[in-house]
Design goal:
With 369 residues, the protein is of the alpha+beta class. It is 55% helix and 7% strand. The chain has 18 helices and seven strands.
Length: 369
Amino acid sequence: MTSDETDRVLARAIVAPDAVAGALPSAQALIERAVPHRVDRLLAAVLVADPAIAPHVDYAALRSRLRDAAAVEMAHHADLLQMLEAFEHAGVHAVLFKGDAIAYSLYPAPHLRPRSDSDLLIAARDRTRAEAALAACGYVPEAESLGALSTFQSHWTRARQASPPHAIDLHWRLFNAEPFAHVLDADEVAADAIVLPALGRARAPSLAHQLIITAVHRVAHHYDAAHLLWLYDLHLLAGALDEDGMARAADLALARGVGAVVGRGLSRAADAFGTPVPEDVRRRLAAAPVPAAVRIFLEGRPRQVDVLRANLTTLRRWPSRVALLRDHLFPSAAYLRSMYPRCPPALLGLAYLHRIVRGAPKWFRRPGL
């Protein structure tokens, strides 16, 4: 059985285990294949719920995996509550999106949806207060280049004693890539946000916004990768929207120029999980035009130089294009000193040159997915 065939069986085993019970490949091989797709917890929950599906699996190991995930989730939940309370006291109206939003709104249990960090969207005007609140909670910023046009997020971590560190990805724009810069803005998402009762008064984007964000994220940041976790997220979101809700989400995606991107995600989710998509929605999204700058993200694995070209093409004004290039080539001196701590200040120019020369090859390599 090829990896693609195994992936298809894996996806069906998650949503319709009875339908594939007699056609499973080696259950252990299926579990191992689930790990890179990050759906191993979902598969473990399915198998534990009905041991007859794969009677020869090590169920003690699966239960242990689920217990460990639940324990980490408890620490994650406590960190989120503390952080969100600090934001509230600081007057910062943050919206959780991506993994946490979907885990706490649509998954049967949040620990079944793995996350490497917590993504929060804030208005750019609240950035200073948000970062001060994170620092007060013990989070430490990563050393990174934060150019005004090259990145619109900062990364923070806080160590825990008995579990992995809690990582925060603080966004003041949803997507770094310029072709997707104005799909949804922070104020628009906040105005239509829904409450996550499991996290007190925490808020998440509306289901329609979450559908668009999830579909665009897998293309803008992961270049249409057939990663089952993100496709399962789309499957849940599409299933949670009624036909009118799906139509409104499609209308918004088309109006914002990402109809083809959302259509691609829903099509892949339908192929993998049998996601129901209304025919009119499917047809309209499939017929959506694909701007040249967006096509770069949909076709193959773009090199960083290809993404840069898409960003420069989308920026209409030359001063903005020059500023973007400057952000990439000449990050702040503070960042460069963190990368070259032994470099004397008088030789910082050579450090810039070394960074450019050393980093140039990666701009022309195809990324792994």
